[in-house]
Design brief:
This protein has a domain of 167 residues: 2,3-Dihydroxybiphenyl 1,2-Dioxygenase, domain 1 (Roll), CATH 3.10.180. The protein is α+β, with helices and mostly antiparallel strands. Helices cover 21% and strands 28% of the residues. The strands form 3 sheets. An 8-stranded mixed beta sheet has the order 11-12-13-10-14-17-16-15. A 5-stranded mixed beta sheet has the order 1-6-9-8-7, with helices on one face. It is globular, with a radius of gyration of 19 Å.
């Protein structure tokens, strides 16, 4: 039903500046053609690639900002966005404008029909010449465009049909495409996006009942890390996973983050070809990081970037697995 996680996004005051940091500090690829700024939609976004080959790394990294000015393309979105900031907590260092899921247009239309039939709150942005496709948000309506979590359990979801994205055909290959001749320390793809909730069971029930979205296996309890995790299913096996996590201990890393900042988006995890080589690359770039040895979450070692390097954003690296 759900094809892939379109982006690991972050709402930041200066997406151009964040793009430069992600490029210079982590080696994420940028290009002027990946910057999107439609005058009629009042936002700036960069769709950055972890690998230059989009087919290898379908989930992109998206720093973006919505400008506080007239938005003729989607006049409700300013109020929608303000409600998201209030829901997540205006001081929270990691915020999303929406967790964007790509799906076949026929599946999107079936989902809209289900929401309509059950009278669940949702909104469709009107089509414009710049964005001539449907974009679906749940938990709000056009007449009251303020987000509430009854439909998706607090995940701030947006759904979009995949066809307008013009995905390369090889992105759908099975098995998925692998990088060609990677060098030690090369970034490969986004492997996971974490999202903290207060009640994992409630969020999963709402996703199942309202959105036909299920985990790709049983909920796993990570005792050492101090949280429970559900990894949601996508048709594309090399999409980043969407990890919904609930702390089981208040004093675990995830527990502290929840009680410091509240629920919402958390880590963006990338894979790399050789962790030791990546550590050397980060050291050469002057980037502060720490090792998490035998990390239960990934079944091996993990590199965690000091959040101060990226204005509070949490990035991690794990070893690439084909």
């Amino acid at each position: 039903m759900y094809m892939y996680l379109m982006t690991a996004d972050m709402m930041v005051p200066d997406p151009d500046g964040m793009t430069e940091k992600l490029h210079s500090k982590l080696g994420i690829h940028k290009h002027k053609n990946w910057r999107q700024a439609f005058e009629e939609h009042a936002y700036i976004a960069h769709f950055l690639r972890v690998s230059k080959a989009w087919a290898v790394a379908p989930t992109r990294v998206e720093p973006q900002v919505h400008l506080d000015k007239h938005n003729p393309g989607d006049p409700m979105f300013r109020e929608h966005l303000h409600s998201l900031a209030q829901y997540q907590g205006e001081h929270r260092p990691i915020q999303t404008h929406s967790i964007v899921l790509a799906m076949k247009t026929e599946n999107l239309e079936r989902l809209i029909e289900k929401l309509h039939r059950r009278r669940l709150p949702f909104r469709l942005a009107r089509r414009t010449p710049d964005m001539d496709w449907d974009r679906l948000w749940v938990g709000l309506t056009p007449e009251n465009p303020r987000y509430e979590p009854s439909v998706d359990g607090g995940l701030c979801l947006e759904m979009i049909g995949a066809e307008p994205l013009q995905l390369p055909p090889e992105m759908h290959a099975n098995p998925p495409p692998q990088p060609k001749d990677p060098k030690p320390g090369d970034n490969i793809r986004v492997t996971a996006r974490g999202f903290i909730v207060r009640n994992l069971d409630d969020t999963l029930r709402r996703c199942s009942a309202n959105l036909d979205w299920e985990p790709n296996g049983p909920v796993r309890e990570l005792t050492q890390a101090g949280y429970r995790r559900a990894q949601m299913s996508f048709d594309m096996p090399h999409s980043a996973s969407f990890d919904i996590v609930e702390p089981t201990r208040w004093n675990s890393d995830i527990g502290y983050y929840l009680h410091n900042w509240g629920p919402g988006p958390h880590y963006i995890r990338l894979s790399t070809y050789g962790l030791e080589a990546k550590a050397a690359d980060l050291t050469e770039r002057g980037v502060k990081f720490s090792w998490v040895r035998d990390c239960e979450s990934v079944g091996g070692d993990l590199i965690r970037i000091d959040p101060e390097e990226l204005d509070g954003q949490i990035f991690e690296f794990e070893e690439h697995r084909a």
